[in-house]
Amino acid sequence: MNSLERNDLIHEFGTAQNIARVCQRVALQHSAKKITQINLEIGEFTFINPDQLRFVFKIAAQGSIAEDAYLNITKKPGAIRCKECGFEGKVTLEDNPEYHSLGTISLGLDCPKCKSKNTEIIGGRELNIKDIKVED
Ligand SMILES: [Zn+2]
To answer: Which fold has domain 3-77+124-135?
Structure first.
């Protein structure tokens, strides 16, 4: 495993721990015995890999009422606003291959219309727990 992959896993592990913690708190408030499913919305620009997140969640939630929960993940596309031409809309990282390996966006993303990098991200950084399914 190279250092980039290891960093990715650490990033996802922290995220998994947070998800497990929040879901457990909600489930316990409702006197649930077990969490069976967690519905998540994850923005493309969070750079979270769903398969890795499911994998590390098993570890993060081990021994808790969330340990057998299935993570149902919906990906939300990223969106930018272009300060040059006024374009507003979806962009994917496929259009910006240089960001795949970085795991972070420090420069502007390319505007799909005018190719300017003078853009700002307006969507795709969210990580929302939509709801959870529990057994009483
Ligand atoms: Zn533009």
So the answer is: hypothetical protein PF0899 fold (3.30.2320)
